[in-house]
Amino acid sequence: MDQKDIITHESALEMLLEGNERYQSGGTCSSNPCPSTISLDSGQSPFAAFIRCADSRVAPEIVFDQPLGSLFVCGVAGNIPTAEIVASLEYAIAALGTKLIVIMGHSSCGAVTAALADEDARRSLPGGLPALVERIHRCTTDLDMDSETALDDAIAKNACSAIDQLLDMSKVISGLVETREVQVIAGVENLKNGRFDIVRRAF
Ligand SMILES: [Zn+2]
After folding, report:
1. Which CATH number characterizes residue 13's domain?
2. Domain-located, residue 122
3. Which of 88, 134, 144, 172 has the smallest count of CB within 10 Å of its CB?
4. For residue 35, is it within any domain?
């Protein structure tokens, strides 16, 4: 039986969290073999799809200890759902049978840090960055910026808000979430110890 026929969102999440435990304890077991010993060219059945931050310190395959072919990973600074990323996730869900979507934020996120700066600083960023950072800024305006945990709060809020944005942007995904065939979760990886904590589930 094909992997996609048997992996539910519950078991997909369990596999991810078990892999994250292995990563934290240094006991990773799914180091990828060389291409000649595995058959990746016959297709893919990833059991989880990701929106991850583009940050070089964040890699779901490593953090969740999963081999090539297991995770469908889309990346953008600040792990926000852009139109192209949402379309990519729709492909994973509709064509590949993936049942779990993970929004993966992380501690010390530069994109979220930039979104917390004052307006002049945000506007003076180069190129297309002001527009990207503004999207993150919009979901952080009700947070207490004087709090010691302001950055961590904003990182969690940005990941949580991405669920709402994703469901608003995609009828394909929101329909399957409504019938509980697909789960969307938001979480944050602590870069100090590799621990991934869920901060919100779509249901
Ligand atoms: Zn980041």
Report:
1. 3.40.1050.10
2. yes
3. 144
4. no
Q: What's at 191, amino acid-wise?
A: L
Q: How far apart are CA 154 and CA 165, in angstroms?
A: 16
Residue 34 is assigned to a structural domain of this protein: no
pLDDT, tens only, 84-123: 999 999 999 999 999 999 999 999 999 999 999 999 999 9
Ligand 1 geometric centre to CA of 34 (Å) = 30
Q: Total domain count for the chain?
A: 1
Measure 39 CA to ligand 1 centroid, in angstroms: 32
Report the alpha-carbon distance of residue 199 to residue 191 in Å, rounded: 16
Distance 96 CA to ligand 1 centre (A): 27
Whether residue 33 is contained in a domain is answered as no
43: left (phi over 0), alpha (psi -120 to 50) or beta: left
108 Cα to the center of ligand 1, angstroms: 7
**Structural domain that includes position 176:** 3-24+44-196
* Residue 61 alpha carbon to ligand 1 centre in Å: 16
The pTM of the full predicted model, rounded to 2 decimals, is: 0.94
Instruction: For residue 35, report the distance from its CA to the centre of ligand 1, in Å.
Output: 30
